[in-house]
Amino acid sequence: MNEFRSHKVLERANAARWTLVAAFVVLAGAFFRTQILQHEKYRLKAETNRLRPVPLTPPRGHIFDRHGRIIAETVPGYSVKLLAASADSLRAVLERFRRIVPLDDEAVDAVVRRYRQATFQPALVLGDASFETVSRLQEHSALLPGLVIQTEPKRHYPAGKAVAHLVGYVGEVTESDLKSPRYAGLGLGTLVGKAGLEQQYDSALRGTAGLRYIEVNALGRMVREEGAAPPLPPVPGRPLRTTIDLELQRFIDSIWPVGVRGAMVALSTTGEVLALYSAPTYDPNVFIGGIPAAEWRALNTDEARPLLNRAVQVRYPPASTFKLATAIMGLRRGLVDFDTRMPIPCRGGMQFGNRYFRCWKREGHGDVDLTAAVAKSCDVYFYQLGLRIGLKGILDDGIQMGFGERAGIDLVNEVKPIYPASTDYYDKRYGPRGWSNAVILNLSIGQGENTQTLLNMVRFYQALAGDGKALTPRVVPGEPTRSRDLGLTAAQIAGLREALIAVVERGTAGATRSADLRTAGKTGTAQNPHGKDHGWYVGFAPADRPRIVVGAIMEFAEHGSTVAPYVVRVMRRHLLGPEPPGERGRVRIDVPRDSAPPPLEIPIDSPPPAPAPTVSAAGPVPR
Questions:
Q1: Half-sphere exposure of 28 (CA within 13 A, CB side)
Q2: Is the dihedral of CA 24, 29, 35, 36 positive or negative?
Q3: Neighbour tally for 78: CB within 10 Å
Q4: What are phi and psi of 573, to 5 degrees?
Q5: Which of 30, 151, 401, 446 is deepest in the core (most CB within 10 A)?
Q6: What is the value of pTM for the model shown?
Q7: Under 8 Å between Cβ of 488 and 332
């Protein structure tokens, strides 16, 4: 019995021994695998827990004008971030932060949202902190665990409001942005272009972000900032040289009438954009480091819509500036020449069916030829010319000349004009019997189902100032695309230029005539059922050998003759230099403060309904 018990004890001892040996072998193997075979993996994991990456913003490339002047630059700045172990601890630190530097509740919530999007990175609190703010925070750093202050480049626009719609602004990439292939590979917090040139050429201007590391303890609190690990330096963005004349851009801003909405565009005869201005404007510098929520709301709720680029994002009826297109249609089809007179002289209007359609000049223009009809902007002449061309001809020729397409400028969000491609447009919208040939009278004088951007009309006049070919406008130098040929002979181009010269010398823009610079152009007045009419003027200079084409639209300006002097001043500034001291200054134009917003057509998924295809008995008043 004792022997049996001794044998059982020995068996158990041996089993325990081998169990211990097996456990030791397993543990030894695990230690070998962990410390030898997977050393790099666990070392990296330990380093990851110990080190937190902090992105280094790359300097964006400078943007220059045609003469090397700075439109957008990168200057030194400070950012303030907070590192936290949890959202609750972050809020606790932010409460202390607010006692030192004011932050409203919306700003605090925004910081917490940033933290939750990337918990392993410090959350941005101030993107553009002043030296005084940074100094104050440094003094109280003991109360703010996880405070990270770093110097990093920030954007600056020396010309401010003068270049806002042209250059755009920068902001943090959003989660919705990251879904676009345009921003593939970027992380939250990366600064990208949000409008204008900054957005169009973002991939070149942005550069590549770098990294630096800060060391934290097991609780996620910062131990040290410098020397934790070698940093990866950022790669600066590439500079961008444009065709813009910054001094001309500033000049337009300085003379633009106070309180007036509209836009102005200046092109060279080779399609280079010399200036592009929209009013009202805004200061792109307020977006640096993140625009305050209250200011962002104010910009978006302002009925004047200052963020809207009226040069490329708003459509207006071209009014009498389109009469040159109607004249071209008649010339190309051999229906008229410059000496042609219409059967019905202008006596203030014309009977069409059972309707009487007035000319803008109640006493009429009399018996005029094509040149005089352009100079005096005679509606009755162009009513009859439009009827000769016919609706199909007006639509076909207008599409061929480019009135149904974008100008193609290298800026984002240019809208497409509205110009019917065929009579199917009217059948679909109004029914086969819902419209009549009265639409011809509207279209022939630039009203009705025809709305154009300012840029598209300036491009059209660039063709008249050049060799008859409309070039794609460019802000950054490149080979322009010859987009549309007006199909005119050299003699016809010369005759149309003479007609536009006559507008200035004895027509509707006579007040702009001067002895030292001969200019040409066309006024226009777009009907506005909500208030005063909108004024157009597009012209070029010198009239005999054009070098610059300038167009402007001013809302509520009543008529084109109000706009013409501003356009001529810009042409004179470009060609003749600074104005004499007595001519300098900004002019105020009275606009109705109680009028409803003008009927702007802005970019949306489906175009809004066009105006009803009828002509008011009162008639349009293009001047």
A1: 6
A2: positive
A3: 20
A4: -60, -40
A5: 446
A6: 0.83
A7: yes
